[in-house]
Amino acid sequence: MTVQAFGAFAADKPLEAMTIERRTPGAHDVVIDIAYCGVCHSDLHTVRAEWAGTLYPCVPGHEIVGRVSAVGDEVTAFATGDVVGVGCMVDSCQHCAECEAGEEQFCLNGMTPTYNGPTETAPGHTLGGYAQSIVVSDKFVLKIRHREDQLAAVAPLLCAGITTYSPLRHWNVGPGKKVGIVGIGGLGHMGVKIAHALGAHVVAFTTSEEKREDAFRLGADEVINSRVSEEMDAHALSFDFILNTVAASHDLNAYLNLLKRDGTMALVGVPEHPHPAPDIGALVFKRRSLAGSLIGGIRETQEMLDFCAEHDVVADIEMIRADEINTAYDRMQRSDVKYRFVIDNATLAA
Q: Which pTM does this prediction carry?
């Protein structure tokens, strides 16, 4: 099946229109006409080979929302016309301990990412959601229950939403908990919204005074400028949990010292250069934990989507045409977006 897409042929080339082939659907496959695809910073890193191992041609996109146009003979959970989503992975071994536990993102044999992952069909690696359609195993397709007018803003939930929801749920964030969200960007703004919906007391950390009012609008109960030592010191030893979404190398100690005894800070951003080593004493003497988290399994991602539909949670987005993606990448690198670009995939046919 031939479809129009947008991608790159090399790291030093801009993204451009291209024609790609999708595999012939099998008995357990779902064919999805893509309506919207979110733009993640991981897309930029991969396209520009800032992470090792990019395969070309590279068609990014792992925040996919669309409608089912066909299903395989043995698909029972989906039907033509269903509104569905696809996130960061499209396959896993399905038989290791991690997969059996519903944690396919940690598949011991390696989950298959939605783009740049190995596949037996041409071109030898997966091609993502900057395209008119995609063919995905029914085990990795998700039901979307949001309203029709929210669908574009649902797309970023498939990465930014689950990346923040999973650690918030894992560390039992909810009523009676004081929770910090470090960084108010594509991930952080979802962290604030979801933590607020979970019923926690939410404190947003930012280095930008310009984002203070925005953080309150997103659902923060308090906002701290992390560059103002008096504001930071006033919250020492008071947090149950901190979700750190910043992907740039920075001093972790300033946040570790805000945790209560037995508090945890979870990192979801992978910096280009390592963080300075944290003060081990800050961990040892208060039994604090420094942890990490990676998206979520399919079961938890469906739980997140249902939770967000119930609580009317979506991303703050700016819609773009497919041919505006290079400008969007440049703006994203300058943090000039509030808070997620989403491609209107109908423009691929224009």
A: 0.96
Spatial CA neighbour of 305 closest among 83, 138, 126:
83
The alpha carbon of 137 is separated from its chain's Cα centroid by a whole number of angstroms, namely: 20
- Cα gap 279→256, rounded to integer Å: 9
Q: State the average pLDDT over residues 306-314.
A: 98
36-72 pLDDT per residue, tens? 999 999 999 999 998 889 999 999 999 999 999 999 9
Residue 350: per-residue pLDDT: 66
Sequence ranges of the domains in the chain: 2-159+316-349, 161-292
Half-sphere exposure of residue 343: CA atoms within 13 angstroms, side-chain side: 34
CA distance 257 to 284: 12
CA distance 292 to 298: 19
Angle formed at CA 33 by CA 132 and CA 74, multiple of 5 degrees: 130
| CATH homologous superfamily for the domain 161-292 | NAD(P)-binding Rossmann-like Domain (3.40.50.720)
Rounded CA-CA distance 344/341 in Å is 10
Find where tokens 């003979």 sit.
Answer: 73
Asked whether the bond before 276 is cis by omega within 30 degrees of 0, the reply is no
Please give the CATH architecture assigned to the domain spanning 2-159+316-349. Alpha-Beta Complex (3.90)
Range list of β-strands (E), the chain: 2-7, 16-21, 29-39, 64-71, 83-86, 89-91, 112-113, 133-137, 142-143, 178-182, 201-206, 222-225, 239-244, 259-267, 289-292, 317-320, 340-344
Asked if the domains 2-159+316-349 and 161-292 are classified in one and the same CATH topology, the answer is no
Residue 122: CB atoms within 10 Å:
10
Buried b (16+ CB within 10 A) or exposed e, 34-52: bbbbbbbbbbbbbbbbeee
Helices (H), 12-79: 41-47
Of the candidates 38, 89, 36, the residue with the CA atom closest to the CA atom of residue 66 = 36
> Which of 95, 138, 135, 94 shows the shortest CA–CA distance to 302?
138
Look at residues 248, 254, 196, 194 and name the one whose alpha carbon lies nearest to residue 222: 196
